[in-house]
Structure formats: structure tokens, C-alpha cells
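hey all, quick one before standup. I had two proteins in the batch that finished overnight and I want to keep them in one place so we stop losing track of which output belongs to which input. First protein below, input sequence then C-alpha cells straight from the run.
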Amino acid sequence: MARPCAPAPRPKARARGFALSALLLSVLVLAACGPGLPSPASKQADDTANLWRIALGAAALVGGVTMALILTAAFRFRRRDDSLPGQRASHTVLEVVCTAVPVAIVAGLFAFTVNTERKVTRVVPDPGLVVNVVAYQWGWTFTYPDDGVVSSSPEAGEPAVLALPVGTTVRFNLRASDVIHSFWVPQFLEKRDVIPGFPNTIDVTVTRPGTWTGRCAEFCGLNHWEMNFEVRAMPKDDFQAWLADHRSTGDPPAAATTPVTTTAADATTTPLMGPSP
């Protein structure tokens, strides 16, 4: 006796399955359009944001395709009778594709990551501005050695001001005088640990004017929350006026809050060490 044929899938059910798959795929793709990052404010931040968008887009694409295949199999090939599906030991083409595509995606992301890391950590031979950064409990001191200007936290809990010109590569020489701190401006999309005895150097090229809040991103003690500083990015003419104003008034670091004494000349070469916390 011949076995009755399995009923064909209903058009409405199939349409609902494909519509649901398309909806989920669209949600995943749209999620990649908003990475949730602060608006980049430097050339290096743009490179980091591009890497993040590409990685998020690749993840959304892989997740969307995977979900679409799962839903298609669940709706189209769901069980309708006791018959067994076609049995085969292997599918060479499918196995090669399922191996080659993930390897290609990982290799591409790895190459793009390495290239971005090189751009972000690159140090130019002749920066347009040098700023020596000293982190201490519980504040910051910013020294402009070529201009004889020092900006620091005037009182505990008040932020120091870091003024920067737009379109100029700025060299930050990072030092810590007591414990481990971390130099972080969210709009730069990077941060650097500041470790006593281990000087660190980064270059940042600000691309737009603005005022942002910088922070210590490493828990450094009881008053860690006080270690904010204010970043003021401004056009070059305004920055020169800011330097002239602070050069004429003199803005030395407060002796009560800065545990070390440095000059603009030796701040670029001497690691700053202070008393143990």
C-alpha cells in the first residue's frame, strides 16, 4: 500500500516564517547602526570607532544569517508525519563553505584590528604640542614645557583644565607620582594606564572643538571619584590666547595637592616617583 504524501506547507505559515526571519534580521542589522559609543573627537578615536562598527556589523550579519537559517529550518522542515528526512553522511561543498566563511571573517577582523592598533598607538617624530601629564592622589597636573604653562587642580575636588588645539598632534607624556592611575577621555575612545616608574606616551589629534570631562579610569583609592579634569578643545588662535593668558598670570600647581615638584624642563625625561600610598 502506497504511503500518502506529506501535505505541502501552508502558504500562510510559510509567509509568516519568512516575515519573522526578515524582521529579526532587520533588527540585528539596525542594531549595528548605533554602536553606543561617545561621538569621536580625535583622529585616533575615528579609527577606533570604525573598527567597532565593522566588528559589530560582522557580528550582526553572522547572527542574522544564523537566525534566519534556524527559523527557516524550523518552519519549513518541521515534522508533519513519521517519515524520515533524507540521510547522507556528508556534504562536501557545505562543509567547506561553513569552514571557510568563519575563518575568512576572523582573519579579516584580525587584520583590521592590527591595522587600527598601529594607527592608534603610532607616535609621530615631531608632534605639534607636548603636554606632560602627572597623575596623583587626587588630581592632575598638565605642563606645557615649550610654553612655560602649568595647569593643575587648584583645590581638592576641583578639576584641572587641559586645553588642546584642534588639528594639532599632541604628545602626552604620562607619569604617576604615587599609585596606578589611568588617563581617560571618553571622546578619545582610548585610555592609558599611568604607572609609577613606567612612563607612557601617546599622540592624540583632536578633530573638533568642544568641552569634555576626563577621568581616572583606575580605582586609585578612597577619593578616586575626585580625579576628573576638564578638556577644552579650541581653534589654534584661541589656544594661543589661552596660553598667553596663563603664561602672564602664572598658574602653578598647588603645593598642598601636588606631591612632587617638577619643572617644565625635566618633566619630559624624569619618571616621577612619590611616597607609597
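OK second protein, same deal, sequence then C-alpha cells:
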Amino acid sequence: MDRFCRECGAPITGRRDKRFCSDACRTAWHNHVYYHQGCPTAAVNRVLARNRRILEAVCAAGVHSVSFSDRRMAGYDRRYFTSMKLSPLRLARYRVYEYSFSVLAGRIFHLERLDTR
């Protein structure tokens, strides 16, 4: 019985239950399947990574207060953050990975990069 790799179609040698000719083909096939299934965690991680890159660029420019309508914030999705805590004054403090900020009237303020060590 001839067996062929699910990814590249090459003949398979070895165990009878083997479905791929190599680890690279197995990984490529699974990545393709999960990408096309619309894996929800991958989509959320992409949005969070984009939000982090935007905050990183704004913070690196020395800006600690910025409006969501500012061009530097283009592509930022306000619905996605990694955590949120209420301050003693009941003001929400959001985090996107190591970046922390508060929001008031459509503006980010007190934007800072936290020491993650």
C-alpha cells in the first residue's frame, strides 16, 4: 500500500500510521488548517499585537497622552486589551501587555511602559 504525505504528496516511509513525510510538512499542514478554520485565539492575538505595536510607537515618541482620533492611533482597536483594573477613584486602568494607560473622553492618558522584570 502506497502512502503519500497530506501536505506535499511525497511518498511516506516508516510507521504505518504516519500521515506526513516530515515535521515541516506536518507543521505546515496544521498551520494551514487552523488558519483557514479561523482560529479565534489567533485572531485576538493579531489584534492585541497590533495594539501593542501602536502603543509602543506612541510611547517611544515620548507621548503620554493621545486622542484615539490621532493619526498615530490609526488601526488601534479599543475593544481589545489584556487586563483592566479600577483605581481607588474608580478610573479604569487598561493594559495591553506591558503598556498601561487610562482613558477619559476619548483620550489615552498616563501612557507608560511598565517594567516587566
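Flagging for whoever picks this up: Residues 40-60 form the longest helix (21 residues). The first strand starts at residue 65 and ends at 67.
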